[in-house]
Amino acid sequence: MDALILSRIQFAANISFHILFPTITIALGWVLLFFRVRFNITKDERWLEAYRFWVKVFALSFAMGVVSGITMSFQFGTNWPGFMETVGNIAGPLLAYEVMTAFFLEAVFLGIMLFGASRVSARVHTTATFLVAFGTTMSAFWIIVLNSWMHTPQGFEMIDGVAHATDWWAIVFNPSMPYRFAHMMLASFLTVSFLIAGVSAFRWLIGGRTEGVRVALKTAVFGAAMLIPVQIFVGDMHGLNTLEYQPQKVAAMEGNWETDTNVPLLLFAIPNEELRENTFEIGIPNLASLILTHHADGEVPGLNDFVADDGTALHPRVAPVFWSFRVMVATGMLMLAVSWGASALMLRRNADRTGRRGVEGLPKPVLYGLVAMSFSGWLATLAGWYTTEIGRQPWLVQGVMTTKQAVADVPAGMVASTLIAYLVVYALLLAAYIAVIFYLARKAAKGEPIGPNVPQSTKAAVTVAAE
Amino acid sequence: MNTFGDPTVWLPFVFAALMGLSILIYVILDGFDLGVGVLFPFANEAERDRMVSAIGPFWDANETWLVLAVGILLVAFPAAHGAILTALYLPVAIMLVGLILRGVAFEFRVKAPTPWKATWNRAFFVGSLMTSLSQGFMLGMYVMGLTWTLPHVGFALLTAVFLTVGYSFIGATWVIHKTEGDLQRKAVDWAKGGIWGLVLGIGAISAATPYVSDRIFGKWFTWPEALYLSPLPILSGVLVVSLWLMLRRMPFAEDRYSWAPFAAATGLWGLAFGGMAYSFYPYVVPERLTIYEAASAPESLFIILIGTCIVLPTILGYTILSYSIFRGKATELRYD
């Protein structure tokens, strides 16, 4: 394998590992603020109980996100120097604003949010929680702005092969940004909803039936049930936006080789790049046309329109885009079914008609289902990002520069060795992360304290605390 | 934009100064918490918990200065960012793996099941060590002009050791400030044992830099520049001697001046860094690329500068707020 493909795999591995954790912290920050504010208003201990458990998951996820994020800022230079040399005048300020407005905000106030509750007033602590949530969202905003600009670039001119900004408003509010930002924010909230629902269901199943678990589970399931239809709607709008600006990506998502009307929606297909056709396909007639153009006889672009005169493809490889898209949609549909089903079960009335059944209304298989779905948000988010990012290839910045033009002249062997090192570290950390979350859940279910960051059992800590 | 003269001159200079400031703040702040990690094997279990409490609320924000420094290099001097980081490909990768290990070990060592705690303590130490060594190695390679020859790598290996010992020294002075009792006395010993790393490191780089480049030699050893620059080595010498005298008699009664070693170490760091910045100016890639050649377009730099003028004071403000909320001796870290 050459340095280009190895660098791409390395960057994909890093960014895939990284995005798992911001996807959790972006929304979990707001959920924690919700728990915290509910406690401030109601003075009901169960909200604080929920806060105390999930703030630990937040701290862990945040640390994982920070360290894997630092990796990214270096890899622009070590592996992709051509990117900043060509579009640095655009990407630079956006990344700078991310670090300045978001990174420091969250990093500083995280300390106060995690460890400052006993040192500052409730109001200051709530404010710190808000600023951390706000910081993570700002961070997501700037990154999405830059990423969207790479898909739908505007507001610049090329001078001697280097991009120069002409209109910052156009750069920030580029055509795909609002859709991508909304889609990602909702993805984050859904991921967190299913994580909270899954871990809470796990605690419930093993006997930790506290009020804190009950409110967390309810908040998560009802939240997911409300957000998933919104996400499907926003995803559809995002797709229409892509159809307008990156038709070759939509063609790959649909596995459609020839531009045509009355295009079927393919449920299953084996795209073949050599023959430039699908060797096998099962589809629903007219549905792709209907979804993309809202007319059964609407025209859907085909991949064969995106081939250069010399025969090189100007569209992405079809199979990965086609399949990632289907994994994302299927996971979304499953989320819809599970969250609506569980909500309906919880909203049923008690036998004596005095109230609703709530968490008791959930039969065991449904609870197990929720546990199995704990990380379904990760699956959908990764599949979605693969769809859009692989779908942009061979471009790094659509129409401006290809990925190949940006890669560093580093020996392939060197990239291969660092790639293996990263993969080993990431695999171990991911296993440790998931194991620790369920370990914390088991401990909480047994009623053991998981509060202090330093074990109280050690003698010295007790003595010092006594002083 | 032209009020201050040619923007292609003053904007790169301003950004080079900002980057220098970020790197300096980074090596001091993350220097102390990396140093605490490097000192881990010398402490017992209870002391380790104390030491982590002393850096727990800060390390995250400290590391952000590295992101800011690399960020400025990336956005203001993109050509230099590529040249430096591709030349330092392997040490950067080692540093990143180190940063990942120690960053997550903070969380895992207290959240994972007890039998795993020793493993995560080791990860915290190994990660801190990898980070410190690779940063020292990169410093040495940078001084030597980023070319991989055997003598250069040898020199870089030396600076790797010196910087690591230097970090453990500043880490020890932080522990002196944030703790009391036995651990504080131990930290005084660590500081006494680590000060040589700092002295040798500063000495090696001061000696090597003029030797590598005639240009830098000329900047230091010509009259009258040598006279104007003489306070730099003299002040450094005074600081080292007073640190040594102070450490021999610490801790003082009623914990007076427990902040002084850390402050003196900060001063020493600042002086050494100032000397290096003077040597290398105006080059960002030593002897190859000046800050003026490597800079981004002025209109992009100007956009970033507006933000920086608003944001940097705010960052400093809330950093100070955070340090004052967690001032005094480190207490047990609690979530409630």
Please indicate the count of domains of chain A.
Answer: 1
| Mean of residue pLDDT values of chain B | 84
Beginning-to-end CA distance, first to last residue of chain B: 50 Å
**N-to-C SSE string of chain A, H for helix and E for strand:** HHHHEEHHHHEEEHEHHHEEHHH
Q: Choose one word for the global shape of chain B.
A: globular
Strand and helix order of chain B:
HHHHHHHHHHHHEEHH
Largest interface: A-B, 82 and 75 residues
Radius of gyration of chain B over all CA atoms, rounded: 20 Å
Give the C-alpha Rg of chain A. Answer: 24 Å
Oligomerization status of the protein chains: heterodimer
| Alpha carbon gap, first and last residue of chain A | 62 Å
Helix count from the secondary structure assignment of chain A? 15
- Poorly predicted regions of chain A: 451-467
Residue share in helix of chain B: over 70%
Spatial strand sequence of the major β-sheet of chain B? 1-2
- Content of β-strand of chain A: 5-15%
Total beta strands of chain B: 2
The main sheet of chain B comes to: 2 strands, antiparallel
EC number (chain B): 1.10.3.10
Enzyme class (chain B): oxidoreductase
Organism (chain B): Flavimaricola marinus
Pfam family, one (chain B): Cyt_bd_oxida_II
Please characterize this protein's 3D structure.
- Chain A contains 15 helices and 8 strands.
- Chain A is mostly helical and 467 residues long.
- Chain A has a two-stranded antiparallel ribbon. A two-stranded antiparallel ribbon of chain A has the order 3-6. A two-stranded antiparallel sheet of chain A has the order 4-5.
- The termini of chain A are far apart.
- Chain B is mostly helical.
- Chain B has one domain (10-325).
- Helix content of chain B is 79%, strand content 1%.
- In chain B, α7 (150-178) packs antiparallel against α8 (181-212) and α11 runs antiparallel to α12.
- At the A-B interface, α2, α3, β2, α14 and α15 of A face α2, α3, α4, α5 and α14 of B.
